[in-house]
Amino acid sequence: MRILELKGVNKSFGGLKAVEDFNLSIEEGEILGLIGPNGAGKSTIFNCIAGVYPPTAGEIYFKGENITHQRPWDLCREGLARTFQIVKPFSSRTVLYNVTVGAFATTGKRAEAERRALKVLRRLHMQDVKDVRAGNLTIAYLKRLEIARALATQPKILLLDEVMAGLRPTEVDEMVKIIKELRESGVTIFVIEHIMRAIMALSDRIAVLHFGKKITEGTPKEVASDERVIKAYLGEEYGTA
Amino acid sequence: MGRNTIRIGPLVLAGVIALGLPLAVRSVTYLHILVLLYLYAYLTTSWNLVGGFAGVLPLGHSAFVGIGAYTSTVLSLQYGISPWIGMMIGGILAAIVGVIIGLPTFKMRGAYFALATIAFAEGIRVMVENIDNLGPIRLNGPRGLQIPPLNTGLLNFMFATKEPYYYIILFMLAGVLLLTYAISRSKLGHYLVAGGEEPEAAMALGVNVARAKLIAMAMSSFLTAFAGTFWAQFTLYIHPKSVMSLDISFEIAFIALIGGRGSIAGPVLGALLLRPVTDFSRIYFGGKLPGLHLIIFGVVLILVMIYQPRGLQEPLTRAYRSVTKKLFGHTEAA
Question: Could you tell me which of B47, B38, B70, B36 has the C-alpha nearest to residue B229?
Answer without folding.
Answer: B70
